[in-house]
Amino acid sequence: MREPWEFTARPPRHTAAEPDRITLTIRRRAGESVEDHGGVLIDFSRGGARFSVDRAIDAGTEIEMRLTADDGFAVRLAATVRWHDEPGSQVTHGCQFASDVPWELLGELLLRGALTLDHVIAK
Predict the structure, then answer these.
(1) 10 belongs to a structural domain
(2) What does pTM read for this prediction?
């Protein structure tokens, strides 16, 4: 059992709303060219996100995550892919943002319905 002073706070991850409420585009550089991949946001925290796209993006790849809410509100976030699951028709990835997302932006995404108040329980 942990003692109260050993508690470490962890920012909650919020479940993404239905795909029709938020559009996700992942942009990555591939040599001289730029590739855009449409995807689905799975969950989101101030430090990173989980998303799925149609192909694997190698760990360590720097990306730009573009989120657009159904009301037109849009944001771009720099991130680095940290992992991906086994390739299939859709590949789930985890990324870490270049810097923590401001509380105000997290609030905007919640207020606009792009994220839910449901927290993802970490395993």
Answers:
(1) no
(2) 0.82
